[in-house]
Amino acid sequence: MTTSSNHPSRDLATFAAQLKLADIPAPVLRRTEDLMLDWLGSVLAARTARPVRSIERFAQTMGPAEGPSEMLTSRRTTSPVFAALVNAAASHYVEQDDVHNGSVFHPAAVVIAPALAVAQSIGASGAQLLTAVVAGYEVGIRVGEFLGRSHYKTFHTTATAGTLAAAAAVGRLLELAPQQMLHAFGSAGTQSAGVWEFLRDAADSKQLHCAHAAASGLMSAYLAQDGFTGAAKVLEGAQGLGVGMSSDADPARLTDRLGTRWALAETSFKYHASCRHTHPAADALLQVMSEHQLAHGDVARVTAHVHQGAIDVLGRVTVPATVHQGKFSMGTVLGLIAVHGRAGLGEFDRDFLAPEVATFRDKVAMELDAEVDTAYPARWIGKVSVQTRDGRTLAGRVDEPKGDPGNSLSRAEIEDKMQRLAHYGEGATADEAKALCQRIWQLESAPRVGRWLG
């Protein structure tokens, strides 16, 4: 439904609280399973990442040594909140988790991590977990769209909208009443935080963003179950998030076609192991290099025609100091594409500062493009102009980058990606990864979620 209510937060909370499995179309449920498997690969790939290990040590120090919920990276168990904290931190590290274009929001990291932890804790069924994940996606995406483009210039939407997304998913598992869900939203929204300044220093904050959002949303839902109250209009109120964090907030986006438009199904998979803002240009460059049989040494200059959001985020990184910072460098990503034909985890680890990649990086410039900027964020068009050393100017264009709903990954490709990520992080053996695939495909009929690795 699209509603003209003067209280869209309440309408959104009611939708999340009352969502039932039977309300969700079968194709949306199948896409939910796809996204959950894709998320698992990202978590397992980050098993040995230093920032993730740091957050895990914190969880082991502050949380119980054992509990009902598993930290997938170490296979230890703890309480739901600390499991959510660790798994959410791991979700976003290798930059392979999903993204919703219109909200510029990474839902899986902040929705599936707390939902799984709570489902394991309360003995929920697979169907209940799927329903909760859908509720979290629908809420988080709409909050991200509500906050608008101006929000993203300073704030990391996954960190801010993510608190409400996590609260919605956990609240659905706890079977909160609509008024309780609204209180959970209020508590989650007042904890929204996460700014882009960390990119300038190659700091670890992105992992903290996801961990905090997942844990804060989880706490908010449990507090609401216990009678704790939150702001009734934390989003659209006179001193709410829309006023404090945006100059173009649109309350109508919070309830846009609730129950008929399934925003989860609009979510994209990430093909390259880098910031999503680099993907359209990467695909367009790959098109030019392949079509004209160019080697990286044949290229004199590349102009990536981009939207303003790409400049805002990627423009902070010129010469990356770390692998992770390299994933936010347009020149580095395009350099890997030109040299290797791909920008995967292995290429970043080995060659993000390799001489031939660095040389190509310095040939790349970003330029604001009116068509691309107008289409964004609903569409992420990729356009590049390539000047060759022999004097030619070649154009590349991709209207839907690999992984977008119109150019999506098949289940076979998702399984392959998950298994490659698990192998990369040594987070699961090949047999375990295959078993996880089957567990996800059969989740709807599972009477209990249970442990996934043990």
Question: Can you characterise this structure?
Answer:
This protein is of the alpha+beta class. 53% of the residues lie in helices and 7% in strands. It contains 20 helices and 6 strands. The chain has helices at residues 8-18, 26-45, 50-62, 80-91, 107-122, 126-154, 157-173, 178-189, 198-201, 205-225, 241-245, 279-291, 308-314, 323-326, 330-340, 345-351, 355-361, 370-375, 411-424, 430-441, and strands at 69-71, 76-78, 299-306, 364-368, 382-388, 393-398. Helix 2 runs antiparallel to helix 20 (430-441). The mean pLDDT is 96.
Mean pLDDT: 96
- Number of DSSP E strands: 6
Largest sheet: spatial strand order: 4-3-5-6
H/E element sequence: HHHEEHHHHHHHHHEHHHHHEHEEHH
Distance between the termini: 42 Å
Low-pLDDT regions? none
Q: Mind summarizing the main beta sheet?
A: 4 strands, mixed
Q: Provide the gyration radius in Å.
A: 21 Å
Strand content: 5-15%
Backbone structural class:
alpha+beta
- In one word, what is the shape? globular
Count of helical regions: 20
Determine the fraction of residues in helical runs and give it as a percent range.
40-55%
List keywords for this structure.
single chain, 454 residues, alpha+beta, four-stranded mixed beta sheet, two-stranded antiparallel sheet, 20 helices, globular
